[in-house]
Every structure is written in structure tokens, then in C-alpha cells.
Amino acid sequence: MTSTISNLGPDRVSLGVTPTLWWNDDFPLIDIGIPFEQCVSEMALAGFQGCSIGHKYPTDPAVLKKALDLRDLRVSEPWVSTYFTIGEEERTVENFKRQLEFLEEVGGGDIVVAEFGLSSHLQPIPVFKHRPEFTEGQWKLLADGLNKIGELAAEKGMRLCYHHHMGTGVQTAEDVDTLMAGTNPEHVHLLLDTGHLRFAGDDPLTTAKKHKQRIKHVHLKNVRQPVVDKVRSNRLSFQEGILEGVFTVPGDPEGAIDFKPILSTLEEAGYEGWLVVEAEQHPATAHPLTYAKMARRYLTEVLGW
């Protein structure tokens, strides 16, 4: 097959998938009992090279590494929630250090963070209405904190990648602009999540073009636009949006996002790193392996491998 995006080959990027196709890590009741071993086996069967870490994964790094090595999988990223805007710097930094140590032991280079101080996304309230909007002082606390832990990551040869997220103070494209302007580009990189930006009402392609040199990690997530509109008009919570099916994978004909120009923008910027498929769906209504294979098939068509 001829590659349509020739410079995002396996020498430049790795393809990963998150366990949120198999269960939900924010809302553990969105689950049909799929165990860790089945999840990672199906990731490998679908043709992915790595995965993020979910709450059902072994907490012993040696046990986790053995299980992933058996399936020729690598860790794409662990997740760390930060709480700088509510004055919890010490607790945040200590937890971040623990995750750096864990990542060193299992192998990996990117560590993903998002500021959950004042976040509304885990609460049963309208996600659009109640997202926090940071004061100037809170933006400074966040930027200073990210610069600090970003330097800690760099000292370990790792990259801190910031994940903008629905229901948080860094939700919109404008928020991403503010964060990028206030942080050190050497130590704070951007995780572009296509689905969260589209859900927020912004064009992920515009953000990709604007910050293409800061993007070091990508979550390829699709959205069903009619559900996005329903979440906004009916004042639904983030969890209700997930249960309604707001997210899906690249390659789903119900999805609203055209990924090809986004990937072309990354190609032009010389992107190297992880492209990670993500879609928080209920496994009872969206068969995980079916959707994982759907996304991988789409990426084969677009990337040529």
C-alpha cells in the first residue's frame, strides 16, 4: 500500500491505544468486567505497539513489564493528575516523582499530566457550565508547577506532555494558547487530544497548526457531533456524555473529525512520538476489539503501514 502521509512511518511514530476502549478509568462503573490480560492481548491482536496505563494494570512495574513484553507492547504513557491551582504543589510533585520512577522501571519516555484542581468533569453536573476558569494567580501557579515538574522529567530523559481536558481549566483552544505562552517550551510539551478540543467547540487542526512544534504526544480521539450538541443543549455531565456515546475512534463513519489534515500538519512539523487511539466508550455497547481494529485499519489506510 502506498503511504498517503509518507513521513509518519514506523521509524518516526509508534501507534498506541488506551484501555478506555475496554473500561473507563474516570468512572469505574463503566465496565463489563474485562480483565487486564484480555485487554492488553486484544491491543496486540489489533496491531498496536503500545498502550497507556489503566487502573486495572499491575502496580508492580516488573509484573507489568513482563506482561507487556509477552505481547510486544510498550508503555506509551502514564497519567498524573496535578493540583497546583489549589495549592497542592508538594503532594503533586511527590506523586509525579513516584510516577517517574515507575516509568523508568517499565520503560517509556512521555509522562502525561492534566490539572484537575477545581475540575468539574468527575462531578454529576453540566460539564460546560461548571468548568473552572482560572484567575491570573491560578494560571501562574499552574505554569510554575508545570515548569518545575517538566524539568524533573527532562532530568530523567523524559518528556512532560500536558493534556487539555473537558471540565478543567485548560479546556479550550484559548486555554491551550495561554498555557503554552506561560510555560517553558523546553520542559512543557503539548499533548494534542483531537476529541477533547472538538468537544470543547474548537478545531483541533487550528491548534495543531498553531502549536505544532510544541506537540510531542497525540491522542487520536473522535467525537459524534450530535452527542456533543446534546451534551451542551441538555446540560449533561461529562459522564452522561460518555454514556450517550460522545467519543469514538478514528475511522468510525459516525465521527466528525477529519484526521488526515491533522496528521499532515504533524508530518510537516517533523513529528516523532506516539499516536495513541483513545475513545471512552461503554464496552457493553461498543465492542472494544471491534473498535480497536477499526481504528488500526483506518491508520493503516492513512499512514500506509
Sheet with the most strands: spatial strand order: 3-2-1-11-8-7-6-5-4
Number of domains: 1
Quantity of strands, as a count: 11
CATH superfamily: Divalent-metal-dependent TIM barrel enzymes
- The rounded Rg comes to 18 Å
Instruction: Return the CATH class.
Output: Alpha Beta
Q: In percent, how much strand structure appears in the residues?
A: 15-25%
Q: What is the global morphology? A: globular
CATH fold title: TIM Barrel
- As a percent range, the share of helical residues equals 40-55%
Could you spell the SSE succession in H and E letters?
A: EHEHEEHEHEHEHHEEHHEHEH
Question: What oligomeric arrangement do these chains adopt?
Answer: single chain
Q: Helix count, per DSSP?
A: 11
Cα-to-Cα separation, first versus last residue? 8 Å
How confident is the prediction overall: mean pLDDT? 97
CATH architecture: Alpha-Beta Barrel
Give a structural overview.
It is built from eleven helices and eleven strands. The termini are close together. It has a single domain (13-303), classed as Divalent-metal-dependent TIM barrel enzymes (TIM Barrel). It is an alpha/beta fold. The strands form two sheets. It has a nine-stranded parallel β-sheet. Strands 9-10 form a two-stranded antiparallel ribbon. The model has no long low-confidence stretch (mean pLDDT 97). Strand 5 (110-115), helix 4 (136-155) and strand 6 form a beta-alpha-beta unit.
